[in-house]
Known about the structure:
- By secondary structure, the protein is mainly alpha-helical.
- Helix content is 29%, strand content 4%.
- It is flat, with a radius of gyration of 27 Å.
Amino acid sequence: MSISREDVEHVARLAHLELAPGEIDGLARDLAAILEYAACLDTVDTGDIDPAGDGGEETSRLRDDAVAPGLRPGRATEGAPDAENGLFKVPPAFTGE
């Protein structure tokens, strides 16, 4: 598939990218190679694949949740410039003004 300089410049404008003149030809080649690879994926027969399947067993590979020891109450806020009742006090992000 051929990608023109104009195609690259158009995509760059849509993405709000500033390209140096020397980058355009290289990017055109790169984009063409990516699109050719994607076109190869269209030739793969996926007729026998369940579209909702995950392709693996129904078991989780994640570890079981376990309670881990934490900080004693107030420890995390000891060095905070402003804290109250074990919580960090911060200025409001939006004052409504």
